[in-house]
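Appendix B: complex inputs.
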Amino acid sequence: MTNIEKYKLAFMNGLELDESVVYENLELGMTKEWDSIGHMTLIAELEDAFDVYIDSDEMTEFTSYQTGMELLTRLGVDFRS
Amino acid sequence: MSFISIEFLLFLTMIVAIYYAIPHRFRWLLLLFAGYVFYAALSVQFIPLLLTSTAFTYVIGILIERQERKQQKKRLMWVGVSVLVLFLGWFKYFNFVNDSLRAFADWSGFNYDVPYKEIILPLAISFYTFQAISYVVDIYRGKQKAERHYGYFSVYFAFFPQLVAGPIERAKKLLPQLKTEQHLDYDNVRYGIQRIIWGFFKKTLIADRLAPIVSSVFNSPDPTGSEIVLATMLFSIQLFADFSACSDIAIGSARLFGIKLTENFKQPHFAVSIADFWNRWHITLSTWLRDYIFMPLAKGKKKRQQIYVAIIMTFLVSGIWHGAAWNFVLWGLIHGIYRVFGDHTRQQREKMAAWVGINRIPTLHHWWKIAVTFQLVCFSRVFFQSHSMGEAFSHAKLYVTPASWAPSGMMQAIQMFSLLDLIIFLVVFLTVHLFQHVERTKGSAWDWMARQSPVTSVAINLFLIVSAFLFGVSSQGFVYGGF
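Resulting structure:
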């Protein structure tokens, strides 16, 4: 499984979203599942999936599908693999 | 030396004058001296505790930073947090735990003979302990460097404008400002004086005028339901005026030294939900609880129910922080339940709003949410204000009894105001709402004030000062000063 697939799967598991709903323009608050509480469950899924630690400041800058990828890239996740 | 006193204004003026007259390298010494004099004037017997907490936090911070292994850092961080909580626990919670255990032993027939101890709560301990914990944890998390200059560190612990009742500041925000050389700046001085005047206005004309009226109801052996309803809503206004005034004076005083403290309030009674309320009320405590209680509890949880438990536990900590009594625990629990219930029923409430059609009139829907949130907050404050659990439940029952809201009863209850009190309250209430309206429509009332001509600005400030002198009363300390 590629990292981008793992990333999408974390969204699907963490937010209980259908695959068709997970797209690149998705933002925090755009769906009822991705609210402040859903955000915490998503963070837990991502930490497990990529074995990283996301601190509270990083959590607040993670506000969209795209910024989540940027954050994980900074934490060492390579989305080209 | 209360904030609301001529002594404080003279003290502040003298310290500000000396601050700008001496070289920057000596200013930490002046601020430290001022902090300890200010604290000693209020609570001299607890100066040793303040000094001990400061020294301990300073040393443990350096020790944590020096460790190379994460495990060692973590162990020391827990030592630091435990000792700080122990200080707080001994003074604030010993008798609460002791009394609760004794009551439980009486009920269950066990023998329990730990005697009651006369323990005085040290002034500001809840505030400076939370600052100290955030400092220690932030060093462990690598977000804060351990401060090596003992003088600046001590000022962070005892910066007199925010020492007694916050805002609860983080070291990474306050320490760099203390170390930066500040120059006498007209805008800072004007802003600082205006915030102080505004604080005096709210405290003396709203909070302290309402306090005896509210107390007369809550101290009464048999208040009517309407009196409880009215007094509870007035208490909400009193508490906001009191605590936000304290923050205004703290923020204004700090700005005279060129230091920007964190805002503590954003019109909390205009919140549209409980979650929104906690983003607007006592913001520095809310963010502290979020970062140091909720986040560690919620981290790694993958189910909403687990996060709901973390929310409830965070609000229980908030309740117990406010006071060592079961009614505060219950107050925190109520807010936790509000928050969880609000999240869990959001979809159903949205569907209901669509079914009723209120969401087609956004302004009405918005004000409906404000009114409901205000009522939920007021109901919780019945527990905040009552003196015991029995009394709290009795008052809460009266608050939700429909007959208590009957217009005839409310008209009778309003007679708790004298005519003069009522007129002053209405004029001042309108003034505060005008200010809040400017905040909502113009972004910042303080920026709006800065854009006014000097004549308008002086006229507004004169109105506030003269009103406070003529009609203001001051016989009370700040409510949050007691926490």
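The mean pLDDT of chain A is 85.
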